[in-house]
Amino acid sequence: MNNQQAIGKTKLPNIKNIIIVASGKGGVGKSTVASGLALSLAMEGYATGLMDADIYGPSIPVLFDLQNMKPDAREQDGKTIMEPIIRMGIKLMSIGFFIDPKQAVLWRGPLASNTLKQLVNDTNWGQLDYLIIDTPPGTGDIHITLLQQYEISGVIIVTTPQLVATSDVKKAITMFRDDQVGVPVLGIVENMSWFTPSKHPDEKYFLFGQGGGEELSKAFRIPLLTQIPVNEGVCMSCEGGRLNDLFNDRGVKEGFDHLLKSITSTCNILAK
Prior knowledge:
By secondary structure, the chain is α/β, with parallel strands linked by helices. It has one domain (about 1-270): P-loop containing nucleotide triphosphate hydrolases (Rossmann fold, 3-Layer(aba) Sandwich). Helices cover about 35% and strands about 20% of the residues. It has nine helices and ten strands. α2 packs across α9 (about 250-270), α4 crosses α5 (about 140-150) and α6 runs parallel beside α7. The longest helix has 22 residues, at about 250-270.
């Protein structure tokens, strides 16, 4: 905390915990994990916000079936204050609410960083227990801006079991642990750990290999928070904007339950 104050990080008022969800590479289901965690928190009664900080590839509008929706805005003290869109008990904000989904976002780093800060600072989040921030894949301007500007409670790293995914994750962990801007790495989420057909819930098929999350956990001495399986219904639920259908699958629900318990207990410890 002293190091954060020394470099002038901002403590967002009325937000108890800010959790970054990150990944070393794309295609690992990071946005699904961030959204599933936010939904799990909201279902437990926590006041929860979810911000889509993936400026170049926002996913939140699709996951919550909010394409072509725009937040309400009002003027206050010379600033435009945006009202988050509320779905499933979660306060949502995304750059995807303001851009044409068919158009590429051709922004250099400074413009992307300034837009990010505007989304964080000028959204009326109200009182929140948790703000989950879904970040772009890799390491770049968005991550550096968040780490330099705000007091972050911790980061969750999402990977899949493949060695290609875990090699990129190592770079992300190193960035978040940097002495100048680092934040606690709360743990690793291994997504798509195995495939289980919905009609055969006791079967497991390790389509993407095994052991990647455990290897990272041992190498960096950080906990493997959960392993989340995949089935044929996950993609349809996400692309159809029916995120809560994820929890109809026993294995997926158990995976997110483990993640929920790990995050809430860790944040309670850090707050003391």
